[in-house]
Amino acid sequence: MKSYNIALMPGDGTGPEVIKEGVKVLNAVGRKYGIKLNFTDYDFGGERYMRTGETLPDSALKELKKHDAIYLGAIGHPDVKPGILEVGILLKLRFALDQYINLRPVKLYPNVETPLRDKGPEHIDFVVIRENTGDIYTGMGGATMVGTQNEIATQIMLYSRPIVERCVRFAYDYTRKRNRKKTLTLVHKCNVLTYVGDLWVRVHKEIGDKEYKDIKQDYNHVDACTMWMVKSPEFYDVIVTANLFGDIITDLGAMIQGGMGIAAGGNINPEGVSMFEPIGGSAPKYTGKNVINPLAAICAGGMMLETLGEAKAAAAVDKAVHDALASGKIKSLSAGRMGMSTTQVGDLVASMVK
Ligand code: IPM
Ligand code: MN
Questions:
Q1: Does ligand 1 come within 6 angstroms of the Cβ of 247?
Q2: Rounded to two decimals, what is the model's pTM?
Q3: Does domain 1-99+271-354 have CATH number 3.40.718.10?
Q4: Which of 76, 226, 252, 280 is most buried by a 10 A CB count?
């Protein structure tokens, strides 16, 4: 029997509630597909920070690196100043583990309401590959004359050719494996970002022309992309984009697929330890009420199996989520309006695993 060591980081707010349901479904799939998952709990997050002043010590990083994957609930606490936990835990992990791909599928399941009029599951099914280690997120820059009338602040949009290349190559591979429209759309802003955008455009074309002749190349400026995502989402197959643009367009993506209750993300290092998370955050006001939607966490668990190489088990999670929604028993994806509790949604999906 195949076995994997998974580091659980339930984190803050509703994180633990949704991760519990994710683990339930993963165990159900594991039983059917002969996969054993060994979970080890880690309590990094807001509570621990307030208790100890510690976000994510280097010793923890070392331990996390020994696992096959990390399954994360949510990071963010109302009593902690914004930025401390995000930078100290989430971004630290992404950078330290070199998780250079942020994989965010945008998929509308049956019976899920989208704010887009006249669009259904046949129109909304694409994947955003967000570069996850470069860009404005590297924290390069500075400020001077802070507090004066002439204060200056910079934050640099940084990209190196190797960082762009490895992301673009992953995206082409992914598009080929996905085997749908075989179209990889680069999203950037090369009409204004004439250095960084140009680097992305050239790498996208060079790698595509040389190594992926079977994949169609396309390009959208990021502002136009937000327009097309709303007007004609069926246009997309796979999008590859820079870190900040990817951050922004995947929130829009989450909304058109029915909201944060279903949006999952994978922070992937194809050669190392990857981390999977629902992208919705800690939702403090719903904490402990058993009303939050665990589907995003469940889908993130499916992505984890996929990345571990368990394609059949991953497909079974996706199918179970699909069937649970198709059954019509889940009334809405919004917290408190699902017509059932967090636990019941987890039970329903687990019972649908085939
Ligand atoms: C996300 C989040 C993070 C990001 C924040 C919390 C640092 O918005 O995962 O999309 O900007 O990447
Ligand atoms: Mn975001």
A1: yes
A2: 0.97
A3: yes
A4: 280
